[in-house]
Amino acid sequence: MSPRARVLVADDDRAVRTALQVNLGKAGYDVTLVADAEQALDALRSGPFDVLLTDVKMPGLGGMELLAEARLHWPDVRVVVMTGFGSVRDAVAAMQAGAADYIIKPIERDELLLLLDRALATRAMQRELAQLRKEVEERYGFSDMVGISQPMREVYAEVAAVADSSALVLIQGETGTGKELIAHAIHYRSRRASAPFVAVNCGALPENLLESELFGHERGAFTGAVRQHPGKFEQASGGTLFLDEIGEIPPPVQVRLLRVLENGVVTRVGGEHPIKVDVRVVAATNRDLWKEVQAGNFRADLYYRLNVFTVRLPRLADRREDIPLLVEHFTRKFAARHGRPVP
Question: Which of 9, 172, 231, 249 would suit a FRET pair with 290, their CA atoms being 20 to 30 Å apart?
Fold first, then answer.
């Protein structure tokens, strides 16, 4: 519990208010007492409060109406409803309307303190989650993609359109155009945002290691395989697997990759048992994959499987009006990183 968490008590019974003030005050809470819902709303407007502890039955505006107003205008305040013995129906209705918890009168001190601690802990967790979501959005939204040119606006629109679907995405663009940033943006704007984002550079590994990295291997599958190793598909299960430089994958691995994309099942190198995986694949390449297909370097069936939705990133030469923004962005970024003033 915060040492001075603020609790607003709304109850028309003076004896109840006095008892709560004494008990909560001794427990270290900063307590404000009001006799009805109208006074509670005035107090909330002048807040802030951490918890609203309100009776259900009060003259004038009732506790349920106060709960609704608090949820609408002060969603960060945790609302705990007090109700008389035998009025469990009111408690259930309050929980359905968004109350954090309820307590039955006559109120037991220890039960109330435990309940308030739980409400405050949940509130703290919600705040932390909101902050993490904000940080994720700032880091992996469009904040690192700098540009207001028409080509970049088209990219933003394409990402927004495809992010929350389950479609495979193929990102095409020259080296340095921001393919991985776009993959991050797609993942963190999707319903898989809380699950893993796993990236693998397909052009950085030889064939035997790439196969093991993607699909995993069992102990003893090859020299040096001293332990079982889950592959990137298993590591990304529930989330997104980013296959960078997909055009570099050798033909034997292309066959295995196609099977996984078709049936959602991987078999580790040296293994016999299929493993079901739920992975969204986002692939990227700086090559023209269709030309690679025509040249016989890339499987046509894999190309069509990957090419469900394509995002093409423009060259800097095609978005020259973004250059001043990029200069400012990187100047500020590296000045902050090295603790220097912005020149």
Answer: 231
Report pLDDT digits (tens) over 197-229: 999 999 888 887 898 899 988 887 777 776 888
Place of tokens 């037991």: 108
pLDDT value for 86: 62
Which SS3 state, helix, strand or coil, does residue 257 take? helix
Asked if 134 and 48 touch (Cβ cutoff 8 Å), the reply is: no
The pLDDT-based confidence of 134 (bands split at 50, 70, 90) is low
The first and second tokens of residue 135, run together, are: 């940080």
What tokens were used for 240? Answer: 């997104």
Phi, psi at 313, each rounded to 5°: -90, 135
Give the pLDDT of residue 94. 82
CB–CB of 182/313 below 8 Å?
yes
pLDDT higher than threshold 60 for residue 143: no
Contact assessment for residue 247 and residue 289, using Cβ atoms and an 8 Å cutoff: yes
What are φ and ψ of residue 201, in 5° steps? -90, 105
Mean pLDDT of 28-35: 92
Q: What is the DSSP letter of 313?
A: P
Name 285's Cβ contacts closer than 8 Å, sequence gap at least 6: 170, 171, 172, 245, 246, 247
Please give the angle made by the CA atoms of 316, 313 and 184, to the nearest 5 degrees. 115
> Can you read off the two tokens belonging to residue 252?
């034997």
pLDDT mean over 69-78: 89
| Beta strands across the sheet bearing 280-285 | 197-201, 240-244, 280-285, 169-172, 309-312
Question: Cis peptide leading into 48, omega within 30 of 0?
Answer: yes
